[in-house]
Write a structure and sequence with these properties.
The chain has 8 helices and 11 strands. It is an alpha/beta fold. The strands form 3 sheets. Strands 6-7-8-10-9 form a 5-stranded mixed beta sheet, with helices on both faces.
C-alpha cells in the first residue's frame, strides 16, 4: 500500500480511540483528519477513482472542516462549524451534519478555477433507526445542495451549484446478507425523446453512499471489491482490538511521530 503521512494530531486521536469499546464522540472525531478521510473518499467518490490516497488527501480543503461560515442566511440559516453543520430555520426541526467539508473536483477544475465537491460523512451506530437511512441521506443532500445559493445575490445563479455527496457509514443492526456492502444512489437520465442529451455534470448533483458494516470481524478477501476500504472502516468503527494501531498503520504512516507512540 502507498501509505498516507499521518499527523501527530491524528495519531493522538487514534490512540485515545484505541481504548474505547464503541462508537462515540471521540471515535467520530477521527473523521476530521484528512489522512483518515482520504481512505474513505478514494473508494466512494467517483471523481477520485484512479487517484492515490495521498492525492485525495490533497484535494480536501482542511480549513472547510474547522472554519465557520454561513450559507444562504435567511433560507436555511446554515453554519458550518468545527465538526458539524447546523440547519436551523423557523418552524423547522434542527438537523446536524456529523462532518461537512469541501474537496476539489479534479474532473472539472482547472489551474485557474477550482470547483469543489460538497461532502458530508455520517457515521451511524445503528442502521435500524426506525426509518430508512436512505431517506434521511437524500434529505441531507437536498439541503446541502440548496444551501449553496446565497440570498445575498440579486439573481439566483444555478451555475454555482456543485455536486454533493453524503456518505453514511452504518455500524450495527445490519441484515446478515447486507453486511459489508456499499450502495450508491445517484441521479440518472432515464429517457430522452430528443436526439440531444444534457451533460451528466449538469443534473447529477447528488450522490448518496450507504456503507453497511455489521460485525466486529471482517472476513473479506484482498480480491474483493473495496476490500481496503471495508477493512479500514472495520478497524476504526470497531476499535478496542489488539491489532487496532497495527492495522491503521498499514494505511497511515506515523513513523515520523514515533515519540508519541504508546510504550508497550
Amino acid at each position: 500500500m502507498n501509505r498516507l503521512q499521518g499527523s501527530a494530531e491524528a495519531l493522538s486521536a487514534l490512540q485515545i480511540t484505541e481504548d474505547m469499546k464503541g462508537l462515540d464522540t471521540q471515535s467520530k472525531s477521527l473523521l476530521q483528519y484528512a489522512e483518515v478521510l482520504a481512505v474513505i473518499l478514494r473508494d466512494t467518490i467517483a471523481e477520485y477513482k484512479g487517484y492515490s490516497w495521498k492525492e485525495v488527501a490533497g484535494f480536501i480543503e482542511v480549513d472547510s472542516i474547522t472554519s465557520t461560515m454561513e450559507v444562504s442566511p435567511g433560507r436555511t440559516n446554515t453554519k458550518i462549524r468545527s465538526d458539524a453543520t447546523e440547519y436551523n430555520n423557523l418552524n423547522e426541526k434542527t438537523s446536524l451534519f456529523d462532518l461537512a467539508f469541501r474537496a476539489r473536483n479534479p474532473q472539472i477544475s482547472t489551474e485557474d478555477i477550482q470547483i469543489n465537491l460538497h461532502i458530508d460523512v455520517e457515521p451511524q451506530k445503528t442502521y435500524d433507526v426506525g426509518y430508512p437511512i436512505e431517506k434521511r441521506g437524500m434529505y441531507y443532500l437536498a439541503r446541502r445542495l440548496s444551501s449553496q445559493l446565497s440570498l445575498a445575490l440579486n439573481v439566483t445563479d444555478y451555475n454555482r451549484l456543485s455536486k454533493c455527496y453524503s456518505i453514511w457509514i452504518c455500524r450495527d443492526d445490519i441484515p446478515k446478507e447486507d453486511q459489508y456492502s456499499i450502495s450508491v444512489y445517484e441521479m440518472v437520465n432515464t429517457k430522452n425523446t430528443a436526439p440531444n442529451t444534457v451533460s451528466k455534470e449538469n443534473y447529477d448533483l447528488m450522490t448518496l453512499v450507504v456503507i453497511k458494516l455489521g460485525n466486529t470481524v471482517y472476513n473479506g478477501d484482498e480480491e474483493d471489491e473495496e476490500y481496503e476500504l471495508l477493512r479500514f472502516l472495520n478497524t476504526i468503527m470497531y476499535p478496542h482490538k489488539d491489532d487496532f494501531m497495527d492495522t491503521v498503520s498499514e494505511y497511515i504512516d506515523f513513523s515520523d511521530n514515533e515519540a508519541l507512540h504508546k510504550s508497550s
